[in-house]
Amino acid sequence: MALAAVYYPIPAFPAKLEETILQQNPLNMKANCYLYLHTRWPKANGTCPIVIIITFRRSSIQMATGISVLPKDWDSRARIVLPSYRGTESVARVNTYLSKRRNEISDIILKLEEQGKLKNMPRHELKQRLERKDNAHSIVAFTEQVIKTMLVANQIGTSRIYRTTLNLIRSHGGGGDLLFTDINLAFIESFVAAHLGAGNTHNAISVYLRTLRAIFNKAIKLGIIERELYPFANYRIRETKTRKRSLTYEAIQKIVNANLENDSTLELSRDLFMFSFMARGMPFVDMAHLRCSDIVDGRLAYKRQKTEQHIDMRMSERMKDIVAAYAAGKRNNEYVFPLLTTAEPIKQYEQLLKSRKKHNKALKKIAAKVGLEVSLSSYVSRHSFAQRLKELGIPISEIADLMAHDNISTTQIYLDGLGNAKMDDITEEATKL
User: Residue 33 in contact with residue 133, Cβ under 8 Å?
Assistant: First the structure.
């Protein structure tokens, strides 16, 4: 359901209206809730915010609903949105949502009255209680909690993506708080248009949209919002397929035989590149976390950092030589390669980013030394291993390019079915140097 809504601070409603409402409750013994169209605070597009007004001891409290409509689309007597409203696929759903929000607040007040707590409760305390409930509808508050949970679980990289996404959507929404109802189809389309206009690619934008979609799915699963508020039902996140860069066998040989003039930084990057290639395109993050204990009896057995898949493979003689050079004198619990020096999650993640940046910079220097025109990076070794498998005639329907999969489980299913012994043979044949 697309709801045309943008969050704005709500000013005080007219004194005349307040007096009229208070007259409906002359004894002021109870708090009452009303839906009200705030026509004195129109937006640029002419719509006005619908708010919930709570009268309490001859004063009022206002709560945002996140929905705005044109005055002609509001029935002030029935306090509902009229069928003429064109900002949604279903006006009935909008009215159901508004009614539910009002009823939620009424329910809180009724419980306080039944418990005898409302009688002596200060206005500011009631407002705090209602705002705490209202925060359940704030996408900002909800995402902040998700990020905190990720940090506790040491999901540092993912938490940073959520943080960046949250900052971007808040900026696009004006910089303040945002309700889930604010993020509708119109918001998403304008968000994409703004970022395309700023020079960002569809692939970069898709990262933020997939994260935003995940936030909505989490909130729906937890019962924070209703499925009707899901804004991606009729929106397809667009991505552009990028050309996968891989090296020929001859190019890889050039890297192996390159004279690096005893430059330890370049030699480390070459060893990492070659180890990744021979270890079935092992990602940089997994090499950084590889411990001496992951290598037993000539086999490499570790768990992927990203997918938590267990990898078990036979090491080639060249792989053994590389490990021997870096693991000499180290204890089983120490890292094989000199890339990480701390176990503190946030610092370790920052160190990983710096190490990878340094590694990619060194790889580009190596490429220049051997005359390669390709932009050499840590990902190229993964593409190159997949390309070698294709050259050996491994059916694409069974084992696809490791970097082009939409779902990595497709490759894993094939590897499991093939068996370690057969896969070891294929890997050794593909990576002979």
Answer: no
Answer whether 146's CB lies under 8 Å from 117's CB. no
Could you tell me the two tokens for 159? 């938490």
Tokens of 283: 């990602």
Residue 325 and residue 268 share a domain: yes
How is 108-152 classified by DSSP, letter by letter? HHHHHHHTT-STT--HHHHHHHHHHHHGGGBHHHHHHHHHHHHHH
Helices (H) and strands (E) in the chain, counts: 15, 8
Q: How does 70-82 read in b/e, with b if 16+ C-beta sit within 10 Å?
A: beebbeeeebbbe
Q: Give the pLDDT confidence of 225-266 residue by residue, as tens digits.
A: 878 789 998 899 988 776 667 788 888 889 999 998 889 999
* CATH number of the CATH domain containing 407: 1.10.443
Q: Tens digits of per-residue pLDDT, 168-180?
A: 999 998 888 888 8
Question: 312: which strand partners?
Answer: 301
Statement to judge: residues 273 and 391 lie in one domain: yes
Distance CA 81, CA 74 (A): 5
Considering its fold, how many domains does the chain have in total?
3
pLDDT value, residue 429: 66
Q: How far apart are CA 272 and CA 294, in angstroms?
A: 16
Residue type, 229: L
Helix axes 156-172, 185-197, angle to 10 degrees: 100
| DSSP-assigned letter for residue 406 | S
The fraction of the chain above a pLDDT of 70, given in percent, is 82
| Together in a domain, 317 and 414 | yes
Q: Does residue 406 register a pLDDT over 50? A: no
Tokens at 198, concatenated? 């700023």
Q: Sign (positive/negative) of CA torsion 369, 372, 377, 380?
A: negative
Closest residue by Cα to residue 21 from 37, 32, 10: 32
Q: Are 138 and 177 in contact (CB under 8 A)?
A: yes
- How many other C-beta atoms lie within 10 A of the C-beta of residue 46? 11
CB 89 within 8 A of CB 1: yes
What's the token pair of residue 204? 């970069």
**Residues sharing a CB contact under 8 Å with residue 45, sequence separation 6 or more, in sequence order:** 4
Domain hosting 281: range is 249-430
Q: Distance between CA atoms of 287 and 274, rounded to whole angstroms?
A: 11
Q: Which of 69-83, 84-98, 109-123, 192-206 has the lowest mean pLDDT?
A: 109-123
pLDDT at 345: 87
Query: Is 159 inside any structural domain?
Result: yes
The mean predicted confidence, pLDDT, of the chain is 82
